[in-house]
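We treat protein structure as text, and this decision shapes the records that our systems exchange. The remainder of this section carries one protein's record, kept here as part of the documentation:
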Amino acid sequence: MKIRSVRLNNRKRAFEVRTWRHFYQYPYAKSDPPPTTKDPVVEVYVDEEIGREGFTYQKASGREGTVHIEQILKYNQDPGYMRDLLLYKLTIEAQKRIDVSKLSKREIIRRLGTSPSQFYRLLDSTNYRKSVDQLLLLLHVLDCEVDLVVRSKSA
């Protein structure tokens, strides 16, 4: 996801980030190094060197910091980002379980009722076009139980 623009909002003490589809706020306190009243941000810009996937800011002291779009999406609990994170975690777990499974890959493919190419796409951690359903089925074939836990946010 590319950043379209970034602005400072000193009243809210946050960076205001606009992508092509969404608007996000990212608090100063989450950035590293964090701006302070004694060392405020004097310049902020979308960073072309990282493909517009983040922004860089400079403080009055000359120190710089960079914030990547993934930090912004994670802080704002963006649903698309959270889905991709869940897919990634399930894929890594499936890869680990396959490595220790006594079942052959051919048997796993047969039990899934799919093709070898589809099976390897399921195991590709960079493929986000797969569904959570497919990964849950794979983990079921590997004799795993998956529980989704919902908790209140801690204070």
Notes: The first strand starts at residue 3 and ends at 9. The beta strands are 3-9, 14-19, 23-27, 41-46, 54-59, 64-68.
